[in-house]
Each structure stands twice: as C-alpha cells, then as structure tokens.
Amino acid sequence: MSVRPTVDFLLYDWLSVDSLNQRERFADHSRETFDAVLDTCERIAREKYAPFNRLVDTQEPHFDGEKVILPQATHDAQKAYADSGMLSAAQDYEIGGMQLPYSVEAAANAFFAMASVSIGSGMLTTGNANLLMAHGTDMQKRVFALNEFNGRFSGTMCLSEPQAGSSLSDVATRAVPDGADSEADPLGPRYRLKGNKMWISAGEHELTENIVHLVLAKIPGPDGKPVPGVKGISLFIVPKKLVDTDGQLTGERNDVALAGLNHKCGWRGTTNTLLNFGEGKYPVRGDAGAIGYLVGRPGEGLKCMFHMMNEARIGVGMAATMLGMAGYHASLDYAKNRPQGRPMGPAGKDPAQPQVRIIEHADVKRMLLAQKSYAEGALALELYCARLVDEQHTGAPEAADDARLLLEVLTPIAKSWPSEWCLEANSLAIQVHGGYGYTRDFPVEQYWRDNRLNMIHEGTHGIQGMDLLGRKVLMENGKGLQLLADRINATIQRAIQVPELAAHANALGKALQDVGAATKAAWATGNPTDALANAVPYLQAFGHTVLAWIWLDVALAAQAQPDSHARTGRLAAMRFFFHYELPKIGAWLQVVRDRDLTCASLPEDAF
Amino acid sequence: MSVRPTVDFLLYDWLSVDSLNQRERFADHSRETFDAVLDTCERIAREKYAPFNRLVDTQEPHFDGEKVILPQATHDAQKAYADSGMLSAAQDYEIGGMQLPYSVEAAANAFFAMASVSIGSGMLTTGNANLLMAHGTDMQKRVFALNEFNGRFSGTMCLSEPQAGSSLSDVATRAVPDGADSEADPLGPRYRLKGNKMWISAGEHELTENIVHLVLAKIPGPDGKPVPGVKGISLFIVPKKLVDTDGQLTGERNDVALAGLNHKCGWRGTTNTLLNFGEGKYPVRGDAGAIGYLVGRPGEGLKCMFHMMNEARIGVGMAATMLGMAGYHASLDYAKNRPQGRPMGPAGKDPAQPQVRIIEHADVKRMLLAQKSYAEGALALELYCARLVDEQHTGAPEAADDARLLLEVLTPIAKSWPSEWCLEANSLAIQVHGGYGYTRDFPVEQYWRDNRLNMIHEGTHGIQGMDLLGRKVLMENGKGLQLLADRINATIQRAIQVPELAAHANALGKALQDVGAATKAAWATGNPTDALANAVPYLQAFGHTVLAWIWLDVALAAQAQPDSHARTGRLAAMRFFFHYELPKIGAWLQVVRDRDLTCASLPEDAF
C-alpha cells in the first residue's frame, strides 16, 4: 500500500497542479517531470528512510565530548536527499535549481516525513537558505545559501532562549559591532554575539561540513542597553565554522558551543540542542563573542524570520499529517491481517467457526475511517496551502495577493489542525493494534510519540489560536476571513447541486455562519481579554470548519471520477467528517460566543 | 501540593464514608482509623514510590537468562507496601485483615498510582487472592490466598493468548486431568496445562517467593476436543513453584517458562510477559504439562474470573485517574513558577516590564482547569463506584442489589472514561510545559506514555462500548439504566433549587433525555449490527453525562461548605465541565441516534 495514489489524486485531479506549466516559470515542466521527482523521492524514502525509523529512535544522538554522534543511517539518508537535488528544487535553474512548484516540492517531501520524520529531510536548511535568498546580500546568498542548497552546509533557526520560549520580545542574546572595520566585512556587517539559544534542531552534528545558524539577537541602543520588545531584534548569520568569500572554511571554529542535548519523548532522530553563543569556549580571532553577519537591516530581524516561519509552519503541519498517514497505513495493514473475534449477529455465535480479521469489526472500521478522514483531509489542506504559495509567487497580481491573505488565515490551521488530529489518528492506530500497538515491536507507538511534538514547536496551539482570532481574522479589515468565506461558499454552491453532497453543503454553510457569528460575538466587547480567553476552542472549531470545506471540495473532484474503490473511500471519508466530526464545533463555539471566562477569571489559589 | 485534601473532601464531605462505621463489619473503624491508613499510604508513596518513578522507566525489566531483573527500588517499594498490611486491608480480622471498607482501600491505593503507577502496589495480587476467597476451597484459600495477602506470594491473571487477545472464546490452552489420583489432590483437582499466555503483568520476577498464576484453560470434552466458546473455559491455580499443603515450597519448579518480555511504550516498571505453560522447559514430576489446580467447577472459569475483572476495571480507571492527577499537579506547579510572556491588554504592551508567570495566561488556565475537571471528576467517579462496592457487600439487601446493578452499568465508564480523558489531561500537562514537557527532564511525558495503556488493558474502549450498549443498559429489562437515571434525577432535583446550579441541573436533565432517546433509537431496529456500530461514541456520550452528574453532585457538597479557595476551585471545575465538556455529547449521540453505518458498511477495499 502506498500513499502515492492519494497524492496524485490531490495534486492532479483536485488541484490541477500540472496546469502550472502554463506559467513562464514552470514552462519546462509537465506531469511527467513532476512524476519523476515524486518517483525519486518515494524511492529514496522507501530505501534510505523507512527502514531506519526505529533505529534512529533507539540510537538517540549523543555527545562524545567533542562531537555529536548520529547513526550512519542518518548520514546516508541525508546524503541521498541532498544528492537528489531536492534542497534546491524550488530554486532558479541558473543557481542549479529545478524551478519546481512549491506544491510539488511539498508533496515530494511528504514521503520522507511519512518514512521517518525525525531523520528529516531538508526543511530547516531549505527554509534558512530561502530566507537568505529573500533578505541576504548577493555575497551572503552565494557563500551561505548556495552551499546550503548543494548540501555542503546545513541550516538552523535560533529564536528561543531558555528564559523566553515563545516570548521573542524577551530575547536576551546581544550583538555588538566587531571593531572599527565591522561594517566593511564582505560577508555583511560583522558583530559579536553572546547569549544562549534553546530548542535548536540540528544545532550540532557532523552531517555537513558546516552549520549556518540564523540567530535572533539585540543590538544595544545608544544607551548601551538592548532595545526592549520585538523592535530591537535583528537577524544574524552565525556559522559554526568561519568561511571566506568563496565559501571555503578558513579553519577557524566560531564560538558556538553545544551546552546540552535535549532528550525528548520522540522525534529522536533529530538532534535538539541548547547552544551557547560567545561564551568563550572557542575563542575566535582574539576577541570575545561569536562572529555573526547582519542579515537585512537592524531591528528587522523578526520580519525576516517570519518569512521562514510560515513555510516552517506548513512543514510542521505536513510532518504531523504524514505521521498520521503512516499510522493509518500501518493499522490498516494490521487490521487486514490480524484474526480476532467473530462478527455480530447469528453468524458470530458459533465458536467453532474460525475468527475473522479485525477489519470486519465495525469499531475497527470506525477507527480506520477516522484516521483516513484526518490524515487524507490534512494532506489535502497542506497541499492546498502549498498551491496557494505557488499562487502567491507566480499568480497574477490580484490572485497573488488573495493567496497571500488566504495563507495568513489558513497557516494557523495548517500548523495546528494536523498536529492535534493526526496525533489522535496515531492514538487510534495504537488502539487498532490493541496491546501490540503499545509495544515497541510495532511502529505506531513511535508515530504517536513523534507526533506529540507538533502541537508545541513552531508556535503552540495557544500561539496559533491567538494569531488566528487576535490577528488573522481581523487583519486588513477582515478581508482574509472574507476571502476564505467566499471560497467556502463557492464550494457550497457547486456541492449543493450534487444530490449526494447537498446535505453536507448545507451543513457547511451553517458551520460557516456559526464561525462568523462566534467571531463577532468574541469581539463584541472589543476587549482582547474577553475575545481571546477561548482562542484555542475557536481555533479548533475554525479548523474543523476548514477541513469540512476541504473534504467537500475534494469530494466534488472524487464525485466526478469513474466508480472505483478509491472513489468510494474518499466519499466515505468525507461523509465521516460531516457525520462524526463537524458537529463537534457546537461545543467549541459555545464558549467563544459566550465569552466564557470560567477559566480566565479563576484565581490562582483556587486551582 | 497534595491530593489529600481532595481525597478527604470526596470521601468524607461528599460520600460520608465515615458513617460506614454504623455497620457491623466496620464498627471498630472511625474517621481516625481511616485517616491513619491514608496517612501511612501517602507516606510510603511519597518515600518509596515517587522518587523512583523515572528510574523504573529507564531501567526496564530485563531477563538475564535465568531471572528477570527489576530495580532495587521496586523491591523496596513493594516490600514497604506489603509490610503496611494493605494487601489484606479489606479482609476479615481473623485472617489478619483490617476489615477496611473498599472505598477507603481504593482511596489509599490511589496515592501509589499517582506516585508511580508502574512500580505498582498490589492490585493484581489482591484481586487474585480475593477471587480465591470467593471461589476457592478452604485449602486453596489457606495455601494460596493467605500467602498473597501476607506478601509471600504475588498473583497474576492469565487470560489473553497471542492468537486471541480480547476473544476469550478462542482460548487454546488445554488442561487434562493429571493421572488417576488427580481428583484427590488436597490442593484441588490436579490438571496438566499446555498453552501460551500473552500480556501477563508481573508474570515473572523475583519480588516474591512464589507467583500464583490464575489461568484460563479448556478441559477437553469426551471427544478429546476442547469445548468451543466460553462455556468450555475453566480456571486453574498454576503456581510458579509447587507448594505443599502448608504453603511451603516443595523445591519443585513448575513448568511455567518466560517466553519473552514485552517492551512497552510506557508503564515500564511492571514486567509484562509472554508465558509458556507446559512446554517442557521445566519438566515436573516426570510428566508433561504445567501442574494446575482447578478453582470452582469445570466450565465456570469465566464466571469466576469476572469476579476479579470488575474490581480490576475500577483499578485501571483509578490508575488512569491518578496519572491525570499527577500531570495536573506537575503542570500547575510549573505554571506557577515559569515566567514567560506578558498579560493581554495595555499592561502587557510594555516590554520593559518583567515577564509574568504563565499561570496568568488565560489559555494556560484553561488547560489547567480542564485537567482539574477531568482528574478530580474521575477521582470522584472512582470513589463513588468504590462506595457502591461497599454497599453491595455490606448494605441492606435491596440497597445491595441496587448497588450491584448500578456497578454493572457504571463499570464500563469507570474503566474507560479516565483512560481517555485523563490521557487528554496528560497531553495538556505536556502542553502547559511547552518544549520542556516533551523532554524526559520533566515527568509529564512519562505520565502520558504510561496512561496510554489504560485504554487498552482490561478491555479496550471497543469492548467497554459493546458491554455498555450491548449488555449493561439492556440487562434485567433496563433496570440498571433506570436506577442510574433515578440517581441522576435525584441530584438534579436537589441542584435545581440552588440558583448557582439550576442551569446546570437543567442541562444535565436534557443530556439524560438525549442519552435515553439515543439508547432507544440505537435499538429501534432490534439489530445489534445497527445498534452497536457506534458503541464507542455512545460510551463517550454516556461517560460525559455520568461525569456531569458526578460533578453536579460534588458541587452540591462543595456548595454547602464555607467559602474557601478549594470550594471556589471545585465549583469552577464543575462549571468548566458543564460549559466546555457536556455540550460535546451532541456530536457523539447524533451518529448513535441515526444508526450511522458510514464506517460499518464501508467495504474493506475502499480504505
């Protein structure tokens, strides 16, 4: 069993991604070239990733005092990934890229996430280099970004600090100009950085020749103190090893030291680190501090970084999605082969008859269809968002701007929804396996542990909820929300004409109204404390409504196809979502509408 | 912070357990003697269990070829438990017991589950011995049960087999009479057993002098074949080491061999085993097969075993509950101490102000209050059920019979509800910790992993759902359901007179009607395939309705107390349940009412 038919259906039959070749940037592409990329990635994932997923869980990264040791399999997998050219898939031909649409790139990367999410492909490295392509100088692009795209260097994002996880305004890492000639460095204005960064994925390893850290830090103002708040934050390139203007290592180690490895519940194939910048462990060029090169202008660090974070959020959503998919496939396979129990009714009363396979039990079917509905629905959502990224980058101006704004509204859902519901899918995958699912002899408990990270990193559920209800649905006078409502209504108008879908179209219309009414009610007092007290239930209801829309739209595409098992399955997964899931929004929206302060107003001592 | 005040409030102020001393069996008891037991158990749990909870997770049981090695801490903890006399707490004075009510015993054991669920106290051993006290001969009681109560021996339940997890009718272990004198053995009719048993907790270790396995097996009929179905199942005592009629080891090892240790996702302090009975690894008394002594009559094995399983199910519910409580306390403590971010509104705009502790954020409060509502509500439910056990055993005849029937209906909820919602609580505890919660430096990820077992063992959610909707709500012409409805209505009648509770009372009345209507609708066609297709959503809705009732009843007791932080907190947790949770039943009941066959009717190839 492969996820490929689902990917193909969504990309081509639903999103018509092959028609992107009508655009100049993708003119050399066709379904054939896209398929070749998907084939290659599917093969590498199958051969170099999937077989080692349990191994990277048991052979956690460790520090031998000098180096961080990772399994050989991780080295091999990441080399195969880099050799495939996927790190620069979306880049221009002239710098060695494939000019691949982001939607195809995202689909191709999905195979790696499904095979072994924590071996990892190149999400951080690509995102890091993309940021430099957008905000770096030509020299920074050439020296750093291009060497990330070709796999020589890898990249990190260094935002969080131990005392300030999600609160970026409290970043305490400081950057001061590095001497009189600091402005004249060809790699960019040169600073010395001091501070500690926490939760840095791939922060230390020997997988690549060098590591390019992108670090948020504050430049002290004229009074010598860091500027308070996010306005004071700037962005710096801090390479692990210093390089010259040709991108060659100078032989000098920069003052970036591993302070500790985080030992996680899952996702153990990826090193996660606490890094000390400029603490003096590796003094460099006779002075204190880690050497860093300013990217963009002082004080615009967060703006630059957010360029990277939105793609990272879609990437996290896709990772969560494919873990859900992996659990679905594993438990479906198990259910088709494991005999246990007998059917209900008279046929099941005869114990002399052999046991049936558990897929014949209604509750097992329910748990499988729920997983299918969550994971394939989430995949559709992620690919839809990826297609919006292509629209934003290559569409006509108005369409591009609409895509930008739709992405603003949908990104919190693309990040949060799969992280919650594909985790639930993984729990159901364990449940289908019974006791076996709870053992480390089967893969599903690891999927579940791995997936638990996704509700936390790249902005927690709480952060996504505040972003959605506190910012995204309000921005540009609510235009993003209105654009989304227009798209949902367009789907409803088409579906209402299909007898099999009409009732669902009506249910979606009602849900959309309810979300709209709750949005208004939340802000009726104009007081953020009232509105945002239930931002997470709002996020959950909004997410379920978006997924119902995605499923209805996918169903329209499925409906149009000739009869097949796959068509039957997709329509059933859609019906599952409308019958079992969408009605859940009532409970979530009620507290939003009521501006319920049961939690927010409870005094601390009463807990 | 301690859970003790909550336990005291529920036991004494809500359930009036101290009034049990008006009954003859408990006449020597008083609140003072109960408190002394609780004090002792709280202390042992704090000193011998809690400090080693992470250690038993990392030092998993292993087999050195001869023995299963467990950490010294586990030996020490279980010795302290046995020394406390808790193994025989509920037994008669004349055999060394304390004649403690089950409700107090259950409350006392809750401290161990909270401190380290997988070090374990004596649930299986006590349950095993209780079963022998109910169904064994005097000799079996004296030789086996009494030595379990005094801690010399420990006990197991051997039901599942590799090819038949939940499907007991497919048990393939065989038992044949052991020679001509087999009926005359003073320890009970002697048989030889052959077969494999899977998922046996504490199936092999050196914690006690001997292990008393209670094994389900089939005695071949006159045709030499095992009787098909559950009717052919009998129950046997199979000691790991043979004993004489004084309970002394004879020096003979019985033919029970460890075939493998299960390596689990969590709950790693408890050995979980695959055992081979009678495979010839330890030939005994010159013949093939493990020696076992029949308990009760042939063919009545399941009936005897179910005596043990109902208490075991309440025990699993309590374990899940206390893991939820442990996560709640850990995350509350973290939230009170971790500074991060700033309040909403103008006060939070000034980045020069110090960060606030995260308990000041509304969404963190929501996650904490949800945990409180789940864990303390579940604890109330478990203690309520434990109090029913006391009523069943010591109440007046009619009250005792009502208690028996109420327990039949409530046991599936007592087992399943905490296993689902206190797992959700543990996930929220991780979320409150952010990235730190995902590391093994904090206890919450282990609680979450440990708790995932509880939805599986002692009957999965699927089994509990079928039991509830397929059997319990129908049995004795629906009298159990009617009894429960009467109790719920009695609470509603009291609450409706309290202005602060009246709206909740009405909401509960509506929920009860909806559950009743869904029950009828599910069975409207009389076809179990229709009715039971959505047995799990029914179980979830039924569970939430029961918990709403429990909370309303608890709130009546809280309401009556003088103002305090604890009172405020309890009433808020109740309101949380009514505002955020009870409305969820609508979505679950809809598919039950509609007899929705979206899942059940989907052909296998369409997945």
Brief summary of the model shown:
Two copies of one chain form a homodimer. The first copy, chain A, is α+β, with helices and mostly antiparallel strands and 607 residues long.
Written account of the structure:
- The structure is a homodimer of 607-residue chains.
- Chain A is an alpha+beta fold.
- Chain A has 4 domains: 1-121, Butyryl-Coa Dehydrogenase, subunit A, domain 1, CATH 1.10.540; 154-299, Butyryl-CoA Dehydrogenase, subunit A, domain 2 (Beta Barrel), CATH 2.40.110.20; 300-337 and 369-459, Up-down Bundle (Butyryl-CoA Dehydrogenase, subunit A, domain 3); 473-600.
- Helices cover 52% and strands 11% of the residues of chain A.
- The two termini of chain A are 49 Å apart.
- The model of chain A has no long low-confidence stretch (mean pLDDT 96).
Task: Characterize the overall form of chain A.
Answer: globular
Low-confidence stretches of chain A: none
Tell me the number of strands of chain A. Answer: 12
Highest CATH level, the class of the largest domain in chain A: Mainly Beta
- Named at the architecture level, the CATH assignment of the largest domain in chain A is Beta Barrel
N- to C-terminal distance of chain A = 49 Å
Overall pLDDT confidence of chain A: 96
Rg value of chain A: 25 Å
Helix content of chain A: 40-55%
Give the oligomer, counting copies of the same chain as homo and different chains as hetero.
homodimer
Number of helices of chain A: 18
Largest interface: A-B, 101 and 101 residues
Query: Helix- and strand-based class of chain A?
Result: alpha+beta
Strand content of chain A: 5-15%
Domain Acetyl-CoA dehydrogenase-like C-terminal (chains A, B): 485-602
Domain Acyl-CoA dehydrogenase/oxidase C-terminal (chains A, B): 299-467
Domain Acyl-CoA dehydrogenase/oxidase N-terminal (chains A, B): 34-142
Protein name (chains A, B): Acyl-CoA dehydrogenase
